[in-house]
Specification:
Zincin-like; 10 helices; 26% strand; globular; binds zinc ion
Length: 348
């Protein structure tokens, strides 16, 4: 793949030889967290929530794989394509996780799992998908099966949904230790007592439709009754506040889970901030089929929500189920606000 941009590391080396007055391009920032060294193309430094997201993902992944967390190198790009990678969104190679923000956790899993050595794409990408914290769902593709994906040699050939869902199911039902034996190259017959095709058939038959994202598994901080106000801190230095979340560069965001007590039509307003996203959380394990929810609120398994942002320009009406919802409030440093108020009112 031909890349139009140099890698950030190459750029830092080149930039360091420029005279102080002679370089027009900005030098990427280098930041350290507990377990990472991050070279970032973003103008804004990492927020507290971005730093803890990186360190928690590294710690959690290492713990699940039975490894010690190690310092990893990350190159963070503002938009695809990521240079030096066959996938436009990022890759882990040469000891560096190169990535855009939305693939950061996936590439961190690759970096931590690298010493284990995967013997095929199905396992390495499956593990990265299963441990990166997002919703895991059954693939919609009818032409992909465990047997077809077993043969995938490149990212472009692999069905990532199937790989992640299969890995999650195997780990949840038979444990990480067995999964890592298969990952290293032992046959499915030796590890699971089933030839590949029979394992694939059991997977098709037995695996649940989906598994919740980690964000939705967090406990609800409040129960919303007929009227509710919730304050979201959006100062970058506050715990949990992130900017690697993509409303646009420079925005910051903070998420909370709120429990809705009664289903119905609600009015939603923001005081301050830019916008809010409302995500309907699903059960931790969605057993049978894709949920079909009414009301225009997207849910945890939606991969391309139709219009996820409600902007802070007046009142919005939306239908909410009696269930946990994850609210993400966006603001910006330019507005000079430290917090945003979300107001929900049940309409009679
Ligand atoms: Zn990957």
């Amino acid at each position: 793949m031909v890349s139009v941009r140099p890698s950030l590391i190459g750029f830092v080396l080149a930039a360091s030889s420029c005279p102080s007055s002679g370089c027009s391009e900005r030098q990427p920032a280098v930041e350290k967290t507990k377990y990472s060294r991050v070279i970032s193309e973003f103008e804004q430094p990492l927020c507290q929530g971005d730093r803890s997201l990186i360190d928690e993902r590294i710690e959690r992944t290492a713990e699940r794989l039975g490894l010690q967390p190690e310092i990893i190198e990350i190159e963070l790009y503002t938009s695809p394509p990521v240079p030096g990678c066959s996938s436009p969104f990022g890759c882990y190679s040469g000891g560096v996780a190169r990535t855009i923000a939305s693939s950061l956790e996936h590439e961190i899993v690759h970096a931590i799992a690298a010493p284990i050595g995967a013997n095929r794409k199905l396992w390495s990408e499956g593990l990265a998908e299963a441990l990166s914290g997002g919703f895991i769902r059954r693939s919609w593709r009818r032409d992909s099966t465990v047997s077809t994906e077993w043969e995938a040699k490149t990212s472009g050939e692999l069905d990532y949904l199937l790989a992640g869902h299969l890995a999650q199911w195997l780990i949840a039902s038979r444990g990480m230790e067995a999964f890592l034996r298969a990952y290293r190259g032992e046959s499915t017959e030796d590890v699971y007592g089933l030839p590949l095709e029979a394992l694939g058939e059991e997977y098709e038959r037995e695996a649940p439709w989906g598994y919740s994202s980690e964000g939705c598994l967090e406990e609800a901080v409040s129960l919303v009754t007929d009227e509710h106000e919730e304050t979201f801190e959006i100062d970058c230095a506050t715990n949990g506040v992130r900017h690697l979340v993509g409303l646009y560069p420079g925005s910051v965001a903070s998420s909370k889970n709120l429990g809705i007590e009664r289903a119905g039509r609600y009015e939603l307003r923001l005081e301050g901030g830019l916008a809010v996203q409302v995500l309907r959380c699903l059960d931790p394990v969605v057993s049978t089929e894709e949920p079909d929810l009414e009301g225009g609120v997207y849910h945890d398994a939606d991969l391309s929500p139709p219009n996820p942002y409600l902007f802070a320009d007046g009142a919005h009406e939306l239908e909410l189920d009696a269930s946990v919802h994850r609210f993400t409030v966006y603001g910006t440093d330019e507005l000079d606000e430290d917090s945003v108020r979300l107001i929900l009112r049940r309409l009679k």
